[in-house]
Design goal:
Helix 2 packs across helix 6. The protein folds into three domains: 136 residues, Rossmann fold; 198 residues, Rossmann fold, CATH 3.40.50; 90 residues, GMP Synthetase, Chain A, domain 3. By secondary structure, it is α/β, with parallel strands linked by helices. The protein is built from 19 helices and 26 strands.
């Protein structure tokens, strides 16, 4: 029997302007954004009404600069200005181009040129770069977030969001209504996102408002966030996963979003904002979970924690849930109120889902891809299928494209209102992934169970094909390797040995801090210890999946800003 979707009662909206306006009307005084100010200890709250007004001011100013129908780039840290720029541009008929703040200057210049942007809105750290770029650039406006001294700024193309806010407010007070009156087609281009591919390639994904709106609706339906929730924004905001689920969905449900200003201050910010929910990627989840057990080990509390879990699990079998009482000290590290974590962006071992559940924190997996705005599926919070990435979201079809009827797995393909319009200026690439019936080929391999839940087993392009014709998904082996305490990061690849035979090889960046705790001296001792663990692992694996090569790295793997390892 297939599971039913959660009950869904949210206010209707057809575009992003209606999403913000309805929130401002229904909850004018409710805090939407909360973040640290410039003064030590200062916390700034921005209500839904104040945020809506700020969008109107920026939008009116953008309109007065002639940016309707033009492409506007935005780059920088998560902030009120960043989010408002995104919404003001899109609702005013511009196309927003969110850029990764970790891009090199060369990459920034390349994407600005490719996207033909007329204006770029940026945070303070990029000011020197854009000043140097301006002389040889066709960009009409360089807009710095916040405010700064204009005395020495002779180039009139340089302005600030503070100045634009004042300009927009003045125009509104003088009776100008062009920004409010402009109508946008929800199927027109609205967003161009240059993906940070794990294989080093990058394409411009073009999304419409309708794509984004459908994903926000689906996110609200599946994530069970409410107006009582405080969501802490941790992930890079240029990524659609964070923007859709962590920034826009809270507007629909009336939640508060707290901005984590730096990973360096994450622990302090958890205590400051006390979130009830977080949107994360696997690297954060695994790091936090290991830290819980490392802390228990250092405090000689490991046996006590394991015993508490065993007792708690037994009580839950008879419908007595004392996790809050048993593991309050664990949750205190997250601010004391954390109840929901949504994890997506890459594969996550079901052991972590189960582990957090046992500690009283509801962790579920979701599945998405930028080309799908990005949401494809989410595992609802009250259903326990630890290994699944969930049910297809509302109005989205998911099928498994098998090479033959006998296959149990195949490529995951998706059709629905969330599927992108196409790749920017690349119709041939678009045609390669979206067929004439609208099915998008994700490149991920998996299967769907009898209840309709999706499981991902690997990435099509990562499959290792052995000389005997056997196919091995490296992600499956990586999941096993990550359970070794000494392993911090790993990638499994197929590499030829001296005889030219392809062998399964694990490239590993060890946890050197853990090695020191274990008394291991030098990289050779670390390698020997890891090798011994992998030999034990091999005993539990089929012969063709056994790991024959081990390479130890002294440095971390290169990663995307969503912390996925780049496979070379």
């Amino acid at each position: 029997m297939k599971k039913e979707y959660p009950d869904y009662q949210r206010r209707p909206f057809d575009n992003l302007r209606e999403l913000v306006k309805s929130a401002a009307q229904l909850m004018p005084d409710k805090t939407y954004l909360r973040y640290k100010g410039q003064e030590k200890g200062e916390v700034i709250d921005v209500s839904y009404l104040e945020f809506d007004k700020y969008i109107d001011e920026l939008g009116m100013a953008f309109y007065s600069l002639g940016l309707r129908g033009k492409n506007v780039a935005v780059i920088g840290e998560t902030s009120k200005e960043w989010i408002a720029t995104y919404l003001a541009a899109v609702t005013g008929g511009s196309v927003i181009v969110p850029l990764d703040k970790e891009l090199t200057e060369e990459e920034i210049g390349k994407f600005l040129e490719l996207a033909e942007v007329s204006a770029v809105v940026y945070s303070e750290r990029f000011h020197n770069y854009f000043e140097a770029l301006a002389d040889d650039s066709k960009i009409s406006y360089f807009i710095r977030m916040g405010g700064f001294d204009q005395e020495k700024q002779k180039d009139e193309r340089f302005i600030t969001t503070d100045e634009l806010s004042e300009r927009g407010n003045r125009l509104i007070e003088e009776g100008y209504t062009e920004f409010f009156d402009c109508e946008t087609n929800v199927d027109d281009d609205a967003v161009i996102i240059f993906t940070s591919g794990t294989t080093g390639t990058s394409k411009g994904v073009v999304l419409s408002q309708n794509n984004i709106v459908s994903a926000v609706r689906s996110s609200a339906r599946m994530l069970s966030f409410t107006d009582k929730d405080v969501v802490m924004s941790v992930l890079p905001i240029h990524h659609t996963y964070e923007m859709t689920c962590g920034i826009l969905t809270p507007i629909l449900v009336g939640a508060t979003v707290c901005i984590n200003d730096s990973m360096k201050y994450l622990t302090k910010n958890l205590q400051l904002f006390k979130p009830t929910a977080m949107i994360l990627v696997p690297l954060f989840v695994t790091t936090v979970y290991k830290r819980i057990w490392d802390t228990a080990l250092k405090n000689n509390q490991t046996k006590k924690l394991k015993r508490g879990i065993a007792i708690s699990n037994a009580l839950r079998h008879v419908n007595i849930d004392l996790r809050s009482a048993f593991f309050g000290q664990v949750n205190a590290a997250f601010g004391g109120r954390l109840k929901k974590i949504v994890c997506g962006g890459a594969a996550l071992s079901p052991d972590y889902v189960k582990g957090f559940d046992e500690l009283g924190i509801n962790l579920v997996q979701g599945y998405g891809i930028t080309e799908c705005s990005p949401l494809v599926s989410v595992c609802p919070f009250h259903w326990k299928k630890y290994a699944s990435v969930g049910l297809p979201v509302h109005d989205v079809e998911v099928k498994i494209d098998k090479l033959s009827p006998e296959d149990t797995e195949g490529e995951i393909i998706v059709r629905g209102p969330n599927v992108m319009k196409g790749y920017y200026k690349a119709p041939q690439l678009t045609a390669e992934v979206i067929d004439e019936d609208g099915w998008f080929s994700t490149g991920d391999v998996g299967y769907i169970d009898e209840d309709g839940f999706i499981y991902i087993t690997g990435r099509k392009k990562n499959i290792i094909i052995l000389d005997n014709g056997k196919n091995v998904f490296p992600e499956e082996l990586e999941e096993h390797i990550y359970k070794i305490d000494l392993v911090s990061e790993c990638v499994v690849v197929g590499k030829p040995n001296q005889s030219g035979e392809t062998v399964i090889t694990a490239q590993i960046f060890p946890d050197f801090d853990k090695a020191k705790e274990m008394g291991l001296d030098g990289i050779n001792e670390v390698k020997d210890a890891i090798k011994a663990e992998i030999q034990e692992l091999n005993k539990r694996l089929p012969i063709f999946k056994q790991i024959r090569g081990i390479e130890i790295r002294k440095t971390e793997f290169d990663k995307t800003t969503t912390k996925k390892i780049k496979r070379i």
